[in-house]
Design a protein that fits this description.
The complex is a heterodimer of chains A (about 350) and B (about 300).
Chain A lengths: L7 E10 L2 E11 L4 E5 L6 H9 L6 E6 L2 E2 L10 E4 L11 H5 L1 H5 L4 H14 L15 H13 L5 E5 L7 H18 L2 E6 L2 H7 L2 E6 L2 E6 L1 H6 L4 H6 L4 E9 L2 E4 L2 E4 L12 E6 L5 E3 L7 E11 L4 E7 L2 E7 L8 E5 L6 E3 L2
Parallel strand pairs in A: 3-8, 3-9, 6-7, 7-8
Antiparallel strand pairs in A: 1-2, 1-4, 4-5, 9-10, 11-12, 11-14, 12-13, 14-20, 15-19, 16-17, 16-19, 17-18
Helix pairs in contact in A: 4-5
Chain B lengths: L2 H13 L6 H27 L3 E2 L5 E2 L5 H6 L2 H33 L3 H15 L3 H11 L6 H7 L13 H26 L3 H8 L4 H29 L3 H6 L7 H11 L3 H27 L13
Antiparallel strand pairs in B: 1-2
Helix pairs in contact in B: 2-13, 4-8, 4-10, 5-8, 6-8, 8-10, 9-10, 10-13, 12-13
The chains are: A alpha+beta (about 350), B mainly alpha (about 300).
Chain lengths: ~350, ~300
């Protein structure tokens, strides 16, 4: 067995470009061998964070450690990282195999050995027959795999990917998500993927780092982030959510739209009497024709959209509009009861 | 709204043959200018080289080969050799400065590049004459840079660095540098910034990444720039005259001398033609050697 992979630790990291703050107060511990996704809207600082980890940017403050080793001032070429760039950055003047073998060539590995290794890596990404081709002769999906093979050639301590799938079409992207995840399991390298696609992050990652406004908003396993968002930004960015104004009336109970609803048991505690935003997922709401025994809000259907797998029903409750996804069965203008989940709702203070 | 462009496209295509004589007239202009302002004078000069000189006067139409024979005698061949070596040295030094400079410049944010580009463009507006005389002052013993170095204690006594070989080369590099930078700039700024970064992530220190990734991708631009600088420097005649000793006088200096001082236009013309042929041959050789293959119409950096 190979020794355990060290954790990547980031402490108090910040990065400014002139007067612009690109990153602030980043503290993270990413377990060795895991697949981590940095997810957030464009301009949130996720690529900058990845580039700081790679050594392509120098942080304005804070430190980066790999296990015990302080990487903060280590130049990129001594960091032991493999990186897949957004443009793939394959070298157009070299063949595919020479691209994959580039790092070995820099290390002085003899030509035959390094081309053999390149062949192995190309087989690993399921492109065994393209070694002698020019990069310009490859499709987007193939270039993407070549870039991955090249980044893995030196068996790096960190495998970093900057929006690796964004240039691919939807179908190919889905296939590559699965393939990338399997590849990472096989090689076991600590992997960080930057993406703006929250669904991609949720389906691939062991650990999701949600970034917004140049800060880390929440860190956790995908389901945690989905079920227990810490603030309105995360609740809105990851999946879809209904937001309603509410007030905490007793520990574990929140008043929303005139009714008292239970708070989810494991949600973050909210201060008593405080104004909160109540977040509830469309798929956790049920539509009833009759008043149910559970807590429910009464409203009128204003819009129905059949998405095939589910029906999205928009219901006007007082002056709010709620989205309910489920089996449908109601028409525009119908009076309905919207049943709140028994497991409770999430109250957000920020 | 949406339809308009789709409709106009086929129309536009149909209009093309009906465009009438305008495209031809527009193309005729540069062709005419090229013929009248370049080919005719060139032909005149080539012919002038065969005319007979009248020692007391000017020249008369004729066909003699002694002007070309003299242009190729041992004295002028040696001058030609000196001219070529000087130009090659200046070209090499110019590239050694311009290539890293342009690379580093194009890696800066656009806005940070502007002041440098303005400076480069501004120095391009200085004529060879001004540069030559400015450097002859700066390198002189009485009022030159060495006085400053003496004043701050770096030198014992002021010295004259001009006239001299390095003074000539320095001034050549100075006038050629902006030209080289502007010629390299488009290719370097199109170069994907992530390519050298990718080399870095694979363990290549900056210089190794530059040599193994950047240089191969900009070879053609470097070759074209080398040829451009070489031809430009080879044609300079004020700088060798003001900053060089007679031993550093290049063929253009002798052409000027023959044409203006000695009134020997046929020999000046013959020398000019020999210089033209020589510089063309060497420029092509530079392109072939530096780019690694004969000139071909293919972009040096493929579009991403």
């Amino acid at each position: 067995m190979s020794p355990p992979r060290p954790d990547l630790v980031i402490q108090g990291l910040g990065k400014r470009f002139g007067a612009t703050v690109a990153l602030a107060d980043v503290d993270l511990r990413l377990p060795g061998g895991s697949l981590v996704c940095f997810v957030g809207p464009s301009g949130c600082g996720k690529t900058t964070l990845l580039r700081v980890i790679a050594g392509l940017e120098t942080p304005s403050e804070g430190k980066v450690f790999l296990g015990e080793r302080d990487l903060t001032r280590v130049p990129v070429h001594r960091r032991d990282v493999g990186m897949v760039f957004q443009s793939y950055a394959l070298f157009p003047h070299l063949s595919v195999a020479e691209n994959v073998a580039y790092g070995l060539r820099i290390r002085g590995v003899p030509r035959r050995t390094r081309l053999e290794r390149a062949q192995e890596l190309l087989a690993l990404v399921q492109l065994p027959d393209v070694g002698s081709r020019r990069v310009s002769q490859l499709s987007g999906g193939m270039r993407q795999r070549v870039a991955m093979a090249r980044a893995l050639a030196l068996d790096p301590a960190l495998f970093l990917l900057d929006e690796p799938l964004s240039a691919l079409d939807a179908k190919l992207r889905e296939g590559m998500q699965v393939e990338l995840r399997r590849l990472q399991r096989r090689v076991g390298i600590t992997t960080i993927i930057v993406t703006h696609d929250q669904e991609e992050a949720m389906t691939m990652a062991d650990l999701v780092v949600v970034m917004g406004d140049n800060r880390v908003q929440q860190v956790g396993p995908p389901l945690d982030i989905y079920r227990r968002p810490v603030n309105r930004f995360v609740a809105g960015f990851v999946g879809s959510n209904n937001f309603l104004p509410g007030r905490v009336v007793s520990p574990g109970q929140v008043e929303v739209a005139g009714v008292r609803a239970p708070l989810a048991r494991d949600a973050a505690p909210a201060p008593l009497g405080g104004e909160v935003t109540v977040a509830v997922r469309p798929e956790n709401l049920r539509l009833r024709a009759q008043a149910p025994a559970a807590v429910a809000l009464h409203g009128t259907v204003v819009f129905v959209r059949d998405l095939g797998r589910v029906v999205e029903t928009r219901v006007r409750v007082a002056d709010q509009e709620l989205i309910v996804s489920g089996r449908g069965g109601f028409d525009e203008g119908d009076g309905v009861w919207v049943e709140l989940p028994e497991s409770g709702v999430v109250a957000l203070t920020s | 709204m949406n339809r308009a462009p789709a409709q106009s496209r086929p129309q536009h295509r149909r209009e093309r043959p009906e465009a009438g004589p305008w495209p031809h007239l527009l193309l005729a202009w540069p062709s005419l200018a090229l013929t009248v302002l370049f080919l005719v004078p060139l032909g005149t000069i080539a012919a002038l080289g065969f005319f007979r000189r009248i020692p007391a006067g000017f020249f008369e139409v004729g066909f003699v080969t002694d002007n070309y024979a003299r242009a190729l005698d041992s004295f002028h061949l040696e001058r030609l050799g000196v001219s070529v070596m000087l130009a090659l040295a200046a070209t090499l030094i110019t590239l050694l400065v311009a290539v890293p400079f342009t690379f580093l410049l194009t890696r800066r944010p656009r806005r940070a590049q502007v002041p440098y580009l303005v400076l480069v463009l501004a120095s391009l507006s200085l004529s060879e004459v001004i540069v030559g005389f400015a450097w002859s002052l700066l390198l002189s013993r009485t009022s030159g840079i060495s006085n400053v170095l003496v004043r701050i204690g770096l030198m014992e006594t002021a010295v004259a660095w001009s006239p001299g070989l390095w003074a000539v080369i320095l001034a050549f590099v100075f006038v050629a540098l902006p030209l080289a930078i502007l010629s390299l700039y488009p290719t370097f700024s199109r170069l994907d910034q992530e390519l050298p970064e990718a080399a870095g992530t694979m363990g290549a220190p900056p210089l190794v990444g530059f040599v193994t990734v950047v240089l191969p991708l900009v070879r053609r631009a470097v070759a074209a720039t080398a040829a451009l600088v070489f031809i430009f420097v080879l044609g300079a005649y004020v700088i060798p005259q003001t900053l060089g000793r007679p031993a550093h006088w290049t063929i253009p200096v002798h052409i000027t001398d023959q044409a203006i001082m000695k009134n020997h236009l046929p020999l000046a013309a013959a020398l000019a033609i020999v210089l033209l042929v020589m510089s063309s041959v060497i420029a092509v050789a530079i392109v072939v050697i530096v780019s690694g293959r004969p000139p071909r119409a293919e972009p040096s950096v493929p579009a991403p």
